[in-house]
Amino acid sequence: MGSVSRDEIIRFIEPNIQKFHARRLENLLTLQLKIILSRKNPYLFKAKNQNTAHDLVKTILDAHLSSQEEGIFGGFLEELAVFICGRVYKGKKSSAEGIDLELEKDGTVYLVTIKSGPNWGNSRQVARMKDDFRKAKRIRGTNIRGLKVVAVNGCCYGRDNNPDKGDYLKLCGQRFWEFISGKEHLYTDIIEPLGHKAKEKNDHFQVEYAKVVNKFTLEFSKEYCGPDGSILWNKLVRFNSGKNQK
């Protein structure tokens, strides 16, 4: 068993968290109004009585950005987990389909799929994960006879107080970070470095975000508002859901 110091973790986090901020900003600046309008449910916004162009655009934009940021940040946390586990248990990125990390400790090989939080998928997605576990365990069990192979669904945040799911272990939050590092308090130790230059980066993001909201509001008003300023809901729905729309 190896070890990983706080300084090593900080040296990994600080440059890589900047990549998160850069991708977040890039995604904002490359967005097109028609893309986000085509991906969100116009019926929902009508049902919520959102009749102001600015509010409607902002709501749709925020929902889109939030979904993207979850994915980007989830990828970063996965890289951090693999890095830490590599230092401590010589864990490595897996080549098996659906498996993110492999490590060995105490005579057991663990096959880990990493998710952001505990409520990450529906029943079909969980079934797919379990199938990936079965395939990977069968292959690894053949290659490493004599070693026990255990599947783990690791979640970077959240809580599940019943980790034994039968086919696999579900380790969330503190349990997951301790599992890959051997450090009981790692889950809180990493929170401070994640804020490296966060205010500076977020201030810049907010400046660009305001420009995008204003630009999209103007575009939306020209295309989907009538002369009296009311939203042309039928036209918006036809764009979003009509046949042969581009």
Total number of β-strand segments? 5
- Which regions contain 5 or more consecutive residues with pLDDT less than 50? none
Cross-sheet strand order for the largest sheet: 1-2-3-4-5
The succession of helices and strands, N to C, reads: HHHHEEEHEEHHHH
The residue fraction in helices comes out at 55-70%
- Average residue pLDDT: 91
Count of separate DSSP helical elements:
9
Any idea what the radius of gyration is? 23 Å
Characterize the largest beta sheet: strand count, sense, and whether it forms a barrel: 5 strands, mixed
The CATH class of the largest domain turns out to be: Mainly Alpha
What is the first-to-last residue Cα distance? 56 Å
Class computed from helices, strands and strand pairing:
alpha/beta
- CATH homologous superfamily of the largest domain? type ii restriction endonuclease, domain 1
Net shape: elongated
Which fold name corresponds to the CATH topology of the largest domain?
type ii restriction endonuclease, domain 1
Integer count of domains: 2
Assigned CATH architecture of the largest domain = Orthogonal Bundle
Strand proportion, as a percent range, falls in: 5-15%
What does the model show?
There is one protein chain. The chain is an alpha/beta fold. The chain has two domains: 1-90 and 197-246, type ii restriction endonuclease, domain 1; 91-184, type ii restriction endonuclease, domain 2 (3-Layer(aba) Sandwich). It contains nine helices and five strands. The protein has a five-stranded mixed β-sheet. Helix 1 (6-29) packs antiparallel against helix 4 (53-89) and helix 1 (6-29) runs parallel beside helix 8 (198-224). The radius of gyration is 23 Å and the shape is elongated. 22% of the residues are buried.
